[in-house]
Amino acid sequence: MRLSYPTNVKIVKVPCTGRVDILLILKAFESGVDGVYLAGCLEGECHFLRGNLMAKKRVQYVKTLLDEVGLGSGRVEMVNMSSAQGQRFAEVAREMTEKIRVLGPSPVKRSKVEGRK
Amino acid sequence: MEAARDLSKSKIDQPIGAVLVIGGGIGGMQASLDLADSGFYVYMVDNSPTIGGVMAQLDKTFPTNDCSMCIMSPKLVECGRHLNIRVITNADVEGIEGEPGRFSVTLTRRPRYIHLDRCTGCGECAKHCPVTAIDAYNEKLSRRAAIYIKYAQAIPKVYLIDREQCIGCGLCERVCLAKAVNYEESRIVEKIDVGSVILSPGYEVFDAHLRPEFGYGVYPNVVTSIEFERLLSATGPHRGHLLRPSDGTVPERIAFIQCVGSRDSNCGNDYCSSICCMYATKEAIIAREHVHFVKPTIFYMDVRAYGKGFDAYYERAKSEYGVRFIKCMVSRIREQYKTKNLLLTYLNEGGNLVEEEFELVVLSVGMVPSKTTMEMAKQLGVELDGYGYCKTRPFEPTSTSKPGIYVCGAFEAPKDIPETVTQASGAVADATGALSNARGTLATKKEYPIEVDVASEDPRIGVFVCHCGINIGGFVNVPAVKEYARTLKNVAYVDENLYTCSTDTQEKIKNAVNEHHLNRVIVASCSPRTHEPMFRETIRDAGLNKYLFEMANIRDQCSWVHMSQKKEATEKAKNLVRMAVANARLIQPLGEIALSVTQKGLVIGGGVAGMTAALKLAEQGYEVFLIEKEAQLGGNLRNLHYTLEGEDIQAFLKNLINRVTGHPSIQVITNALVVDFSGSKGNFSTGVMVAPTMYYRKIEHGVAILATGADEWKPNEYLYGEDPRILTQIELENRIANQPDEMARANQIVIIQCVGSRNEERPYCSRTCCATAIKNGLKMKELNPGANITILYRDMRTYGLMESYYAKARDEGILFIRYEPEKKPLVSKNGQELTVSFLDRILNEEMEIKPDLLILSSATISRENEELATMLKVPRTAEGFFLEAHMKLRPVDFATDGLYLAGSGHGPKLISESISQASATVSRACTILSKEKILVGGVAAMVEGERCAACLTCVRVCPYNVPVINAKGEAEIDLAKCKGCGSCAAECPARAIELMHFRDGQLWAKSQALIYSIEQSA
Predict the structure, then answer these.
(1) Does residue B6 have a pLDDT over 90?
(2) Is there a contact between B429 and B926 (Cβ–Cβ < 8 Å)?
(3) What is the distance in angstroms between the Cα of B995 and the nearest Cα belonging to chain A?
(4) What is the DSSP string of B227-262?
């Protein structure tokens, strides 16, 4: 479909969003990404029965952690889409980018850069 | 000398181990995959330029609303790259010679003007083609170029020139960097030799022009249901926006008119198309999901929601989505000149003529066999029925009139996707039964070089960056990405290719691996979805473990979606390559362990489904155990005597029992109960207790088929059990068979439908009762032509070709009176007098009948199967029927590999349907039993025992119940059962579980590399 979306979205492939654990999301933030979102199957249509529901719970939990450390819960989201919803994929990529842009660069990254100086 | 003659004789007698499948729709694909996976070579012929059939055009599928393309495309890809399936598209079958076991078939391949082996499907040609033609895939609602591919996921992924539209400008030839265009190509005639043939040519939709009163083709806002499907689809003409054709506005009031070209003797189609009620309901629901203010109305004759989960779907459409169902026939449609809105005239429930306005009208067009299919059947010498469907018999639902030629799908009779898939697998069992000793004779097995041990070596990564013609190269600076890759740690070799997927590049990759001692390979190109299996094969050919491969997706996820930002796209491509390198450094080779297979089958249940499965599995050459809990075989069939079509069930049953008990490879164990069960696909072990001595017996087997059947519900309403004149259908049938004279004396007979079905307690349709009521009604008429028979019904669900018997019943004077569930008929007894009272909706008056016989069409209910389900860890529906792995595409598989289900235990069904399903389980089972060894492992979860605290988290979290705590007090995951989702690895609090190929370290490195490279991090 070749629908355009912002270049700053990069994909890490996993077999199922059920594979994505809390630590992996936190590690990503630790290395300085500004936002993370998990794109899973539509609810009730998980290819592995219920991995996406587990991922949803974990994302909810990570949100509370991010609030606690001051990064803000808005930097992580769980979204659901089917493989035929290219349109939605591009939309979500745009929305998420806009949202993160408003939140600004991750303070982790800033401190990393400063640390390196 | 003698021996030599014997040898040559046996060689001539040996059938050919190849099968021709005609039609590449979902049925043809299922048949081909089952055949190829069980040791046969397959020729899959389709007259269209791509396989996929009608299902490729659908947006969603009922009753799960699964995306059609999502569930189908893995099968497309598998057919396209299966070593033992040769896909022959754009081809017609011209004739057949020979006999079963040794056919010679003549094919004609029409030119596509593109070299099949050169075209990479990049699509550059279509971008430059100056012609705009009508796109048939989108039901003529959009445009395409003259050089085109039917849809993005098409297999083969090769373009085609529409020579009728092509102006011969030569642009495509000039822009094609792969030199794939060949204007000179011509027709090719080919002969192939096969042992049997499976017909799966599918159907066409009814031509709506033949019902002129609806104005199709005249009024722009009258569309067919398949056009509407495209309008809803994300890949449709409006990219999934629901817009009406006349002015591109969103239609608010949408009318669906049912039975257009079905149940209509005026156009010659007396039959019911079986699927339209459900697809209209689905389209109404999906339309509502697209646009919340849409108000769909469905004008119907009977709502035929007879399949598993269909009635619940229909009820949900009414209650949750506000879909209005109106029972009536629309007499005509007029268009309003100004608004292009449509005025529908119909008789409402009160009997008044009304006119209602709609913005869009969808005609639910029925199924018809296509003209070309009928022609082909004639060429093959296969008999058709009056409508053009392939003639079959109820007890042999997949056999055509010609031995050695089998049929499945909508060419046999109208049917939906799961029934097509079931029948396809069923046809495979029949088509290969006679070829079983040719299994494996023509199927090729690939030989690979010995794997190089790379575990102790430092990573040496080769990176191949692809231009994909100009698909990537035109937007991403490929040489710059290549040079960047060279700077990354552990990268030992880099190269760039015009098309990395071309055959000569595979050789280049292999040479590079050998010359530069590479032990990891990265291709930066299109998408792992389509190309990863191929590249894995390439490095395996070069002696590397296939998992030592990684892909950087710089086309689908970069150049194609960032066309206007070339600089940023190049930067992103570099990032993606860096991420791939970070991961590749940590990839480990994964072993797949070969487990030997116990090549025996177990069938649980000795009814028609169980016996059919056992017999056909034995005919495939495998030893079978058939266990039955009763003292004798037969199940429900013992109480049935004739089919709707008039076949003798008892004669069939006797013959079947004889064949089963007489077969040397079948061991029948009656009075047996399953008491324990363990193992995984290929190697199960089941314990049974056998009465009357109650001795324990252990059975080792590679697959298990569950065919435990269902029962007729004993009603607790309508005074059942309180009067000898009140019978269920089965009781009536037994009486008709055993005491016909007594039954002939009944003059007033009332039959009540949906007794115990479609209510709150059992919200499903029992599927067979409408046909049974008509069957027994007609039989009673035969015994006593003067009898008055009244059938009180809610919807007559005589789907498919059974519709003609419904018509016959009306012709013979059987009265059909509809009742609403809110106003059920009342049965009372006064002394010896039975009275049935009900509301006649046409006269709008309470009526009374004093019947001599009152017949209750009672529900079909699941048997006590909870214990068995728990033991085998197989799921059940809320109603207690066994639940298949996937409603649409895996209708006879359980989610656990190696376990299958057939018959009424899956849901109520007719004998012919049970036979189809039982045959289907056989061909599914053969995909495992035909192998001496199966490979397990690969991407699976592994437990590090020492870290395990036996907290049971993994046991709880696994969607497939795989982990167990072993004797050492550690979690253990059976590689043969693990599906590799990684849920356990993500939840394990001690991090004792790792998902191979997606280990923590790999994913961390990958997400870290997203921000900075390894060197910088150091």
Answers:
(1) no
(2) yes
(3) 8
(4) HHHHHHSTTSTTTT----TTTSPPPSEEEEEEEETS
| Residue B558: DSSP 8-state | I
Q: Which of B604, B612, B636, B634 is nearest to B710 (CA)?
A: B636
CATH 3.50.50.60 assigned to domain B712-861? The reply is yes
Is B206-368 in CATH node 3.50.50.60?
yes
ipTM of the assembly?
A: 0.95
- Could you tell me which CATH number the domain at B111-185 has? 3.30.70
CATH class of B596-709+863-931: alpha beta
Q: Which residues of B touch A87 (CB under 8 A)?
A: 234, 239-240
The pLDDT score that the predictor gives to residue B8 is 44
Cβ B895–A49 below 8 Å, yes or no?
A: yes
A18 CB neighbours in chain B (<8 A) are 959, 981-983, 986
pLDDT (0 to 100) of residue B350:
79
Torsion of CA B880, B884, B886, B891, to 10 degrees: -120
Q: Which long-range contacts (CB under 8 A, 24 or more apart) does B446-449 make?
A: B446/B83, B448/B540, B448/B541, B449/B541, B449/B542, B449/B543
Q: Which residue of A has its CA nearest to B1009?
A: A31
Residue-wise pLDDT tens digits, B483-522: 999 999 999 999 999 888 887 889 999 999 999 999 999 9
Of residues A45, A50, A87, nearest to B234 (C-beta): A87
| Fold exhibited by the domain B16-110+187-203+369-443 | FAD/NAD(P)-binding domain (3.50.50)
CA atoms within 13 A on the CB side of B422: 26
Contact B688, B696 (CB under 8 A): yes
The mean of the pLDDT values for chain B is 94
Residue of B nearest to A48 (CA): B981
Who among A15, A54, A85 is closest to B998 (CB)? A15
Q: Where are the domains of chain B?
A: 16-110+187-203+369-443, 111-185, 206-368, 461-588, 596-709+863-931, 712-861, 940-995
Residue of A nearest to B471 (CA): A2
- The CATH number corresponding to B940-995 among 3.30.70.20, 3.40.50.10090, 2.40.110.10, 3.40.50.150 equals 3.30.70.20
